[in-house]
Every structure is written in structure tokens, then in C-alpha cells.
Design a protein that fits this description.
The structure holds 2 protein chains of 2 kinds.
Chain A (H helix, E strand, L loop, with lengths): L6 H4 L4 H11 L1 H26 L4 H13 L3 H11 L8 H13 L14 H36 L4 H15 L2 H15 L22 H38 L2 H8 L4 H38 L5 H10 L3 H29 L13
Chain B lengths: L3 E14 L2 E14 L3 E5 L6 H8 L7 E10 L7 E2 L5 H10 L1 E4 L13 H11 L5 H14 L4 H5 L8 H12 L6 E5 L7 H18 L2 E5 L3 H7 L2 E6 L2 E7 H6 L4 H8 L39 H5 L5 E2 L7 E3 L4 H18 L1
Parallel strand pairs in B: 3-8, 3-9, 6-7, 7-8
Antiparallel strand pairs in B: 1-2, 1-4, 4-5, 9-10, 10-12, 11-12
Classes of the chains: A mainly alpha, B alpha/beta.
The structure holds adenosine-5'-diphosphate and magnesium ion.
Adenosine-5'-diphosphate binds next to strand 1, strand 2 and helix 1 of chain B.
Chain lengths: 362, 345
């Protein structure tokens, strides 16, 4: 009749080795180690990939100068070389060691193409907008998806369920950049519901920043289209997943048991069905954050929204190695943080995986 | 004047399946008296769980109640048809009047909330707001079912063993002091020692709280120990019902006799005879006449053509009904088996 207790409780060697072992086994340590490894792997991988791209910053600039000023190659080379603090002929391994040793100290270097501009500063200027729009998009999409998904499962087979299933399947299968283009074409150009030009940027520059309704309103107005795009690209997936998860939860014995105990339907819906049905979605949330951040690059370019996406696409065009590198690093970092948060959320929702909190009762 | 708390009258329940309509409960009637324990026996698939779920209106959407009534008499109140209850009246009937311990007991607890929250949820749903009182009541019940009250009260389901969860559910089933508790195979999923504990716990609760039980089991020795009345179900039909002594010493339906013979006895050496040949019939396309006839050693022509009715056997002795064309032969045969057993002892 006894239940095996957790391995943490079973053996507790003393002394330095014991302490060391406990640290290695601890949840926080595992999370941090995993995160650091992921970030290192992404950094290394992108470092190599970026340098495999055809052309380097100097060559790109040379051809730009040739085109713009109609000068000879030698003249352009002389002009371009003076602009860069970068030697494309240095061995890759030297560049790599140099880069990593700076990153470890929190220094992401300076932009190659515009000398003197720190990459971290650039990123910090653009990152908030990306986080703001993606955060808003995911929050809405997740909430709407869960609510509609539950409703679909409760009223399965109804007209509502059928219509929603169709909508979800369609929006889910359209790539997000197509949705963005459709929004611009249909709502902006055809129906003239808004002026695409006016919605460039993150906020109206005429409005003084502050906690004023005008400023916040303008922020939301400018973020509106990217957010709508993120929502419509992901909400269908949440709806369908939540529906199937809810359906299987509704068949669980503890739901019937709750009905047998005469519980009110609202309590059953929230604490018995909803909470259990949400569990698989929280895991998925972590995965989807990475995808949405990746997809945001093109969306931000389409809507001329000043997030990391714009920065990254300009950096790619100019082969600005350090900026690209920095943006990828920050994206990897954001995904790792998001994953950890999702893990923690899962732990709060599901006591079965809560770690080392309490021993089993005998 | 009468002390009948639950009277099931002509209850029929079907499932709509892809292959057609499946009659899982077929015109079942019986009375449950104050403080009585009724054991429902029969192989699995005979409709026992469906019957229980039907009483509490907990059937899945694919099930239909085709006919029948479930007349429930509240303490000091007028009889009502529990199948007609709706909305908040139904919610009140569930658990405060009639509660249930499910067959899949191990999955009957919500994995993400604590036992105490399930206790409070139940109490709150029935208008109880004094949580201190409810906690005291729950702790007292946990003690009665031999659990460590404080630890279990604050535990999550996964922190409890199977036997402990089963006892939590039993304690929970009497939380609101119902008159009737339906127990669906409460001892099937647990080991033999826990089985013993659960039986003892149920006896204690029954004695202290004066509840009536419907006890589903295919373990006949447990049924014999717990029950005042035993009912046998076969393929949706209630084929025999009587006092525990009548049923076990003078069975009158060939199927009941078969079930009894299938119980391994310490003294017996004729194991080959034991189990009933074949398996329960397809209930969408059941055999004609007596549904048991293809598996029955007493069967004659009449069994294939005419459906036997449930008939009173002894007009003046202990209550006993059976639906078998050959109940006399069955009884004779049962006497021989029992005589053999005595000889072997
Ligand atoms: N949800 C369901 N849908 C269709 N048929 C079912 C369902 N539940 C049970 N049945 C069928 O009803 C019959 C009775 O089942 P059940 O009441 O569970 O029997 P028991 O509890 O006696 O083992 C069986 O033939 C079973 O296959
Ligand atoms: Mg059953």
C-alpha cells in the first residue's frame, strides 16, 4: 500500500559531492544549462551559416557604390574599404573565437556596415515593438482559441462547430505573409478601411509619448495589423487542438464523477474540463512562440513595423554579420525564456509534474 | 408505511451504436429498502453499470431511456420519479440523495486539484457554506475509512495509492449523507488486502449511517458477504432476484447456478466443470426465447421459442423470483452440488 517516494528524498549524501549532485539534479540548474546550450548551439550554427552566404559586406557595398556613382571597381573598393572595421580574409575560427569571447561578456559588437553603432543598442530599440506585437497577438490568439475550442467541443456537431471548424482549417493553412498581403489588399486597397501609408511605424511621431489615451491608442492602431495577422495565422490551430483536447477530457471519468456530485456546470467547465484540456496546449504554446517570432520578420517588413524583423532584413541585405548574429542570438534567447515560462506555467497547472515540492503521502 | 427508498420499475435503456440499437437494460424492476444492500451480479457486459448510470441520469449522449421509472422516496417526503428530475432539482438529487462510486474509481478524481477542493466543490454545489463544518465532516469520514485524514485532505490524487483513492471516493460518496449509494465494482481494481479493508469500511459506514447500497460485483464471495438481496443480470435482463440465502443455496436460474459453480472452491476438485461455456450474447442481435439458452445445459425446445417471465417461486417463504423455464430442475441440480460440497467438507 506504500507508494515509492521521489528519488530526491530517498538518498541524501552529505558533503561537497552531495551538494554538487543536488545542484546538478535541481530543476533550475537543468533549465539554465539547457538554455545556455541551446543559445550556444544557435550562435555557432548561425555564425557559420551567415558566413556561407554569397557575398560579404565589402563586396555588397562595392556593387552599391558602383551602381549609385557609376565609378570603377578600384575607386569603389577604395571608398568601401575605409568604411568597414572588418577583415573578411581573417580565418573563420579566429573570427568565431573573437566573437564568442565578446558575447560572453555581454558585448554583441558593433554593426559592420555602419561603424560605431552598437548592435545591442539597435536591438534594444527594435525588440520592444516585436515583443509588444507578438505578445499581444499570441495572448489574444491563445485566449480566443481556447474559449472557442471549448465551445466547439461542448456544442459538437452544431452549426457553430461546423462553421468554426471550416474557418479554423482555412486560416490555419494559409501562410502568415499571405494573410498580411490579403489584409493590405482587401481591407486597405480595395475597401479603403485604412491608409496603409499612415500605419507605417510603431506610433504617430506627432503624438508626445506618455500614458495618454492618444499615445496608447496610436500604439495599438499601428500594432493592429501585425497583431491581427498573428492572430489569424495561429488561432485556428488553437481552436482545433482545444476542441479535440476538450472532447477527450469530456470523456474522462472525473468529469462524469463531478456531474454525479451535482456540481454546477460552470465549475465543471472551468476546474474539471477546461483546466485539464488546456494542459497539452501550454506545451504547444512554447513551440509556437518560436515559430511566430520567426514568422514575424516578414510580417514586420510587409507592414513596415519597426521591429526586429525590419532590422534583420536590412542586415541581411547588407550582409551586416554582427547585427544578423545579434538578432538571431536574441531570438534564440527569447525562445528559451518563453519555453521556460511555459514550463513553469505547466507546473502550476499540473501538480503531477510539479518538481520536488512535496513528498507523496503514505 | 413501506420502507422502499428506491423502486426501479420496468427500466429499459438502449445505446445507439453504429451497428444498431443495443438494449443494455431491458425492463428491469426491483425495490431497494431502507438499509438494505442489494448485490447485482453477472458477467461484464450484462448492463449493470448502465443500470446504475441510468438511475442517476449520467448516461452518455448515445444512450436513451426507452421506458421505465425510478421512484425515489426522500426522507420524510413524497415519492418522486428520479428520471423526470431536471436542472437544479437533479443536481440536488445527485449526491445529497443518491451518490455513486464509479467503476473506474482510480480515474474519478480530478488530477489537477486537491482532494479538499473536491470536497469543498461538492459541499458548495449543495448550498453548504460552512467550510469548517464540511472539513470536520470530511476528516471524520476519512478516519472512518481508515485514511490518515489530514494528509489525504490536502493531497493531490496522484499522491495517493489506488486503495487510498478508492476509500477517498467512498468517503466522498457519503459526505452529504445520502440515502442510497451505488457502488460499481468497488473492489475490482485493488489488491486482495485492500479489498478486505474496503469491505470492512463499507460495513462500518452502512452500520453507522444506515444507508442503502446497490453493490455491483462479479466477485460472488464478496456479494455473499455484503448483500441482503442478490439480483442476477444477464444480457440486460434481470433474470433472478432473491434473499442472499435463497440465491446462494437454492438458485433457480440456470445462469445464477452457472455463476455459483464458476466460483473456485477450496474443497472442490472438479475444476473442469466450473466455467459457463461461451460468452454473453451480442445484445444487438440477441438469441430468441431465453437469451441464455445457447449456453445452458438445461435448455430444451421451449427455451428457444418462449421468453421466460420473472415468477415468484415460494409463495410464503423468503422472497425469490426467477425467469427460467426449468427452475425446478435447476434447484434440484443445485441441491446435488451443495450435497457434494458438504460431502467433500
Ligand atoms: N457508451 C456505450 N455505447 C455503446 N454501448 C455501450 C456503451 N456502454 C456500454 N455499452 C454496452 O452496453 C452493454 C452493457 O454494458 P455495461 O452496463 O457496462 O455492463 P456491465 O457493467 O454489466 O459490465 C455492453 O454490451 C456494452 O458493450
Ligand atoms: Mg460495469
Amino acid at each position: 500500500m506504500t507508494v515509492s517516494s521521489s528519488p530526491l528524498a530517498s538518498d541524501s549524501p552529505r558533503g561537497l559531492r552531495g551538494t554538487l549532485r543536488r545542484i546538478i539534479r535541481s530543476y533550475a540548474f537543468r533549465v539554465i544549462a539547457q538554455g545556455l546550450f541551446t543559445i550556444w548551439a544557435v550562435t555557432t550554427f548561425t555564425f557559420i551559416l551567415i558566413r556561407q552566404m554569397p557575398g560579404n559586406p565589402i563586396q555588397i557595398r562595392i556593387s552599391q557604390i558602383i551602381q549609385a556613382q557609376n565609378v570603377t571597381y578600384e575607386e569603389a573598393l577604395a571608398q568601401a574599404a575605409g568604411l568597414f572595421d572588418f577583415d573578411p580574409n581573417a580565418p573563420l575560427i579566429v573570427q568565431y573565437v573573437d566573437y564568442v569571447s565578446k558575447v560572453v561578456r555581454g558585448d554583441l559588437g558593433e554593426s559592420i556596415t555602419s561603424a560605431g553603432t552598437p548592435v545591442l543598442g539597435q536591438i534594444m530599440r527594435f525588440l520592444p515593438w516585436t515583443l509588444f506585437s507578438i505578445g499581444l497577438g499570441l495572448l489574444f490568439s491563445f485566449t480566443i482559441g481556447i474559449l472557442v475550442g471549448i465551445a466547439m467541443a461542448y456544442w459538437r456537431g452544431s452549426l457553430f462547430d461546423n462553421v468554426m471548424t471550416i474557418i479554423a482549417s482555412i486560416t490555419f493553412s494559409i501562410p502568415n505573409y499571405l494573410i498580411a498581403l490579403l489584409i493590405i489588399l482587401v481591407l486597405g486597397v480595395q475597401l479603403q478601411l485604412f491608409s496603409v501609408g499612415q500605419l507605417r511605424g510603431a506610433v504617430d511621431t506627432d503624438i508626445p509619448p506618455g500614458f495618454t489615451p492618444e499615445y496608447i491608442g496610436s500604439l495599438l492602431e499601428h500594432a493592429f495589423l501585425p497583431v491581427v495577422t498573428y492572430i489569424s495565422a495561429t488561432v485556428g490551430g488553437w481552436m482545433l487542438t482545444m476542441k479535440s483536447s476538450t472532447l477527450s477530457t469530456l470523456g474522462e471519468e472525473y468529469v462524469t464523477a463531478a456531474r454525479a456530485r451535482g456540481l454546477r456546470s460552470w465549475r465543471i467547465l472551468t476546474a474539471y474540463v477546461g483546466r485539464n484540456a488546456m494542459l497539452p496546449l501550454v506545451t504547444q504554446l512554447a513551440v509556437s512562440i518560436g515559430f511566430v517570432i520567426g514568422g514575424s520578420v516578414i510580417i514586420e517588413v510587409i507592414f513596415v513595423y519597426p521591429g526586429l524583423g525590419g532590422l534583420l532584413s536590412a542586415a541581411i541585405a547588407n550582409r551586416d554579420y554582427t547585427t544578423m548574429q545579434g538578432v538571431f542570438l536574441i531570438i534564440a534567447f527569447a525562445v528559451v525564456v518563453a519555453n521556460t515560462l511555459a514550463d513553469v506555467l505547466y507546473g502550476i497547472l499540473d501538480p503531477r509534474i510539479r518538481i520536488g515540492e512535496e513528498k507523496r503521502t503514505r | 408505511m413501506s420502507d422502499i427508498v428506491l423502486s426501479v420499475q420496468g427500466l429499459s435503456i438502449s445505446y445507439l451504436t453504429a451497428r444498431g440499437r443495443l438494449r443494455a437494460v431491458n425492463g428491469v424492476s426491483f425495490d431497494l429498502h431502507q438499509g438494505e444492500t442489494l448485490a447485482l451480479i453477472g458477467e461484464s457486459g450484462c448492463g449493470k453499470s448502465t443500470l446504475n448510470l441510468g438511475v442517476m441520469q449520467l448516461l452518455p449522449r448515445t444512450a436513451l431511456v426507452d421506458a421505465g421509472k425510478v421512484i425515489y422516496t426522500p426522507r420524510g417526503g413524497q415519492p418522486i420519479d428520479a428520471l423526470k428530475l431536471k436542472g437544479s432539482a437533479l443536481r440536488r438529487f445527485r449526491w445529497a440523495e443518491c451518490s455513486m462510486v464509479f467503476q473506474a474509481a482510480l480515474n474519478s478524481l480530478n488530477p489537477v486539484i486537491r482532494v479538499r477542493d473536491m470536497v469543498y466543490d461538492t459541499a458548495r454545489a449543495h448550498g453548504e457554506n460552512d467550510m469548517r463544518r464540511i472539513k470536520a465532516r470530511a476528516l471524520e469520514l476519512f478516519k472512518m475509512v481508515r485514511l490518515d485524514p489530514d494528509r489525504v485532505f490536502d493531497a493531490y490524487p496522484h499522491q495517493l495509492s489506488g486503495g487510498m483513492r478508492q476509500r477517498v471516493l467512498i468517503a466522498l460518496s457519503v459526505l452529504l449523507n445520502p440515502q442510497v449509494v451505488l457502488l460499481d465494482e468497488p473492489t475490482t481494481a485493488v489488491d486482495i488486502l485492500t479489498q478486505r479493508t474496503i469491505i470492512d469500511v463499507l460495513k462500518t459506514l452502512r452500520r453507522e449511517l444506515g444507508i442503502s447500497l446497490i453493490f455491483i460485483s462479479h466477485d460472488l464471495s464478496i456479494a455473499a458477504e455484503m448483500a441482503d438481496t442478490v439480483a442476477t443480470m444477464y444480457a440486460g435482463d434481470l433474470v433472478e432476484i432473491g434473499t442472499v440465502n435463497e440465491m446462494f443455496y437454492r438458485p433457480a436460474h440456470a445462469y445464477t447456478l452457472g455463476l455459483l459453480n464458476a466460483v473456485p472452491r477450496l474443497s472442490a476438485d472438479r475444476e473442469a466443470l466450473n466455467s459457463i461455456p461461451g460468452s454473453p450474447p451480442d445484445m444487438i442481435d440477441a438469441p430468441s426465447g431465453c437469451k441464455f439458452h445457447p449456453r445452458c445445459s438445461f435448455a430444451t425446445e421451449i427455451c428457444q421459442t418462449s421468453v421466460p417471465k420473472l415468477e415468484v417461486l415460494n409463495r410464503d417463504g423468503a422472497a425469490h423470483w426467477a425467469a427460467c423455464h426449468h427452475s425446478d430442475q435447476v434447484r434440484l441440480s443445485a441441491q446435488e452440488v451443495l450435497a457434494d460440497d458438504h460431502a467433500a467438507d
